[in-house]
Write a structure and sequence with these properties.
The chain has 384 residues and is α/β, with parallel strands linked by helices. The chain has two domains: 8-17 and 284-383, Alpha-Beta Complex (Aspartate Aminotransferase, domain 1); 40-278, Aspartate Aminotransferase, domain 2. 43% of the residues lie in helices and 15% in strands. It has a seven-stranded mixed sheet with strand order 2-8-7-6-5-3-4, with helices on both faces. Strands 9-12-11 form a three-stranded antiparallel sheet. β3 (105-109), α6 (114-127) and β4 form a beta-alpha-beta unit.
């Protein structure tokens, strides 16, 4: 039985996006619905009405309540989750807390997010360790092949494995639960960058069982900008520090206090996270996500057939959700995103990897078939 959901045109009315632009780049920074944004601003106004009383007396309990709601959404204990500003900050918290030694190795893939690559590379260079970016063969054939390719880089010096739940540039879903399980069997820490995952795919932190998992809430969950979380298994929390040493380091401090009590900051973005969860529940978001995936799948099939190009990954098997790549028959994609915006009012990014060139299409609930048709027409006019 198909459950009725609102049309993309109806859902678009909830968002503040420019109606003249086909916005196919939700994956970069997200977009916040009006009810969630209004809740966010209401918290800001409440803070400004009596800053001392709010921050000194109320803020702690309100953050706990918001974190408990998020923990239920992620299937985790709220004492294992701290609010932070973005997933890159979460990776930095873990990476900077590790006591890297000369000869240590951090194992990642050649598909990871550039900002976090810089994090690991900087710290490894500083302490004489090595950041290994294990190549993942393209096009992707099977989840087992991905896992085997990654673990081929494991050595006796591997201290941690760092992977994305959903890769940014190539937009495919990594088998994180299997990777974390295998890492634990080998006594290797697992660090998962879930920047694109919350709100795009169901998250069950207990099932994934990573040592550390950090995720953005301002992308696919549609919370305000600067809302993210860092999860740490209880047996790993004692040695995890924070990017700022402040009041959270009081006697009896905890993983949560160290990473949330960071001096004066606008906590409205965190307090609005329950409103983001409510919004998606009220609008039957699991069905919205499924509809978005079906439409993205059709679109990918159509354009790969039109351009005669090879998909980076199969259409079935759970390789992608609402964000996917379409392989383009061009040698250079530089400048295409600006051309699409200037000439066609389409916001969409282009990426490259290992000699492949792609357009990365995000289909959020507000993306209509007309938006996708506009992109297809524009690419056909440009590419031929």
């Amino acid at each position: 039985m198909t459950i009725e959901i609102e049309s993309p045109e109806q859902l678009r009315e909830y968002f503040l996006l420019n109606p003249d632009v086909a916005f196919l780049n939700h994956g970069s920074f997200g977009a916040c619905p009006k009810p969630v944004f209004e809740n966010y601003q209401a918290w800001q106004r409440e803070i400004e009405s009596e800053p001392v009383r709010f921050i000194g007396n109320r803020q702690g309990d309100l953050l706990t309540n918001a974190r408990q709601r998020l923990a239920g959404y992620l299937n985790a204990d709220d004492s294992d989750i701290a609010f932070i500003t973005n997933a890159t900050s979460g990776v930095n918290v873990v990476a900077r807390s590790m006591k890297l030694q000369p000869g240590d190795e951090i194992l990642g893939t050649d598909l990871e997010y550039g900002a976090c690559d810089y994090t690991w590379q900087h710290l490894c260079d500083r302490f004489g360790a090595t950041y290994v970016k294990q190549p993942i063969p393209m096009p992707l054939a099977s989840k087992e092949a991905v896992i085997d390719a990654l673990f081929a880089g494991v050595t006796a010096n591997t201290k941690a494995i760092y992977i994305s739940h959903i890769t940014s540039g190539t937009s495919f879903i990594m088998p994180v639960a299997e990777i974390c399980q295998r890492a634990r069997e080998l006594g290797i820490l697992s660090v998962v960058d879930g920047a694109h995952a919350p709100g795009q795919v169901p998250i069950d932190l207990a099932a994934i069982d990573a040592d550390f998992y950090t995720g953005n809430l301002h992308k696919w969950l549609c919370a305000p900008k600067g809302a993210a979380f860092l999860y740490a298994r209880k047996d790993q929390q004692d040695w995890v520090e924070s990017l700022t040493i402040s009041w959270g380091w009081h006697p009896g401090h905890s993983f949560v206090s160290r990473n949330q009590q960071q001096g004066t900051q606008d906590v409205s973005r965190y307090l609005a996270v329950p409103a983001a969860i409510d919004f998606q529940e009220q609008h039957n978001w699991p069905e919205v996500r499924a509809s978005c995936h079906r439409r993205l799948r059709r679109f990918r099939e159509q354009l790969h057939a039109r351009f005669g190009t090879t998909p980076l990954y199969p259409e079935d098997g759970g390789w992608y959700a609402q964000m996917g790549l379409i392989t383009l028959p061009v040698d250079d994609v530089s400048g295409l995103n600006q051309r699409l915006y200037d000439d066609y009012a389409i916001e969409v990014p282009f990426t490259s990897h290992a000699g492949w060139n792609f357009v990365r299409v995000s289909v959020q609930g507000y993306v209509s078939d007309n938006d996708l048709d506009r992109l297809a027409t524009a690419l056909t006019e440009i590419i031929g």
